[in-house]
Specification:
two-stranded antiparallel ribbon; 38% helix; 14 strands; 10-stranded mixed sheet; alpha/beta
């Protein structure tokens, strides 16, 4: 009898410990602030998705999403956008000129969704398979007139309130023309800066920067480690332990680089890495029940088309129309609270507006 009571008490204690952050919040607030995970596949059009899906035996994590839309990608001054203008549109809600990071056509600074979330006591993180100062991640924290101003972009990140960041480009922080060591300066402001995944996982700091590579990370085909899914999973574990709402931007950067090279194997391998992160985000949101997941692209790259293949093996051949970007619309997949907002056809600036509406609640 005594043993039965002990087992029952242990069971109750265990069950109580499993109460989610969402459930605790709901006891205090019927509408707790929602989390957002925005995943951007750079250069990822429908053909890139299809190629990755067929290469993985006709399967992708995107099949789990029940809301799908299309976004128009053009910039303010060109039908064919670049990553800087399109990322700025999604991050800040304004069309701008190609090459601009976080500024409008008058070169005035814009406030990003990440910064709006920080003003609402959200945690914020950025994960990229490029350098952390590349156009897409930079558009969420920097304001510069040219995407090529890497050292200024690095300086702005060092002075920002991003809680977690992961990406390459360490050299822009400690091998600078102005001789400043931004890494030391960040450490003086309570950042823990690490250069290995094991140290990132072990870190208990509330602000962690993980430089995966000194310059741009290599291709997945060249055994880039860790995977994007592992990086996201570890970051979510840290964030989820802090019982605060959060905003995360996760970029599969090199789908675009494969497109520029008209290299199908490169595209497929990078999509597969990105697809793993999509699955991590979806499963987290499914369990959490208070996380909005959005998967989209900044533009399509390469004018990729799948022209022939085998229904038995799903092997295929692809052709391309350009080494650059195209103006085709790109898909938007969403899941979780407020996901219904992302159906339909709309400008890329609406990604920002819909995210703002989502965090502001009903």
């Amino acid at each position: 009898m005594r043993n039965s009571i002990i087992i029952l008490l242990l069971s109750i204690t265990f069950s109580y410990s499993q109460v989610t952050t969402l459930e605790r919040l709901r006891k205090l607030n019927e509408n707790p602030p929602i989390n957002i995970i925005l995943l951007i596949g750079d250069g990822m059009g429908l053909s890139q998705i299809s190629a990755g899906m067929y290469a993985d035996k006709n399967s992708t994590a995107l099949e789990k999403f029940n809301v799908i839309g299309l976004q128009k990608t053009h910039s303010a001054n060109a039908l064919v956008t670049d990553s800087a203008a399109s990322a700025t549109a999604m991050a800040c809600g304004k069309k701008t000129y190609n090459g601009a990071i976080g500024v409008n056509m008058a070169r005035q600074p814009l406030e990003s969704i990440l910064e709006i979330c920080k003003s609402k006591n959200y945690l914020a993180g950025l994960i990229s398979t490029s350098s952390i100062v590349h156009a897409t991640p930079a558009s969420f924290y920097a304001n510069v007139v040219s995407r090529k101003e890497y050292q200024d972009i690095a300086l702005q990140l060092s002075e920002h309130e991003v809680d977690y960041f992961i990406g390459g480009g360490k050299k822009h922080f400690d091998k600078r023309e102005d001789k400043r060591d931004l890494i030391s300066e960040m450490e003086d402001k309570n950042y823990e800066i690490v250069s290995t995944f094991s140290r990132f996982k072990k870190s208990e700091s509330n602000k962690v920067g993980y430089f995966t590579y000194v310059d741009e990370p290599p291709r997945a085909l060249d055994l880039r480690k860790p995977s994007l899914g592992d990086l996201l999973s570890s970051t979510l574990e840290k964030i989820d332990s802090r019982n605060q709402p959060f905003f995360l931007m996760v970029e599969g950067s090199q789908i675009d680089w494969g497109g520029h090279g008209n290299d199908t194997d490169y595209i497929v391998s990078e999509f597969e890495d990105f697809d793993g992160a999509i699955d991590v985000a979806f499963e987290f949101a499914k369990k959490d029940q208070n996380t909005l997941v959005i998967v989209t692209a900044d533009h399509e790259t390469g004018g990729m088309g799948i022209n022939k293949g085998s229904i038995r093996t799903f092997k295929f051949e692809a052709q391309y129309t350009t080494l650059g970007h195209t103006a085709t619309m790109v898909p938007v997949f969403s899941y979780g609270p407020s996901s219904e907002k992302f159906s339909g056809i709309y400008d890329n600036t609406e990604i920002f507006q819909k995210m703002v509406e989502s965090i502001n609640g009903p």
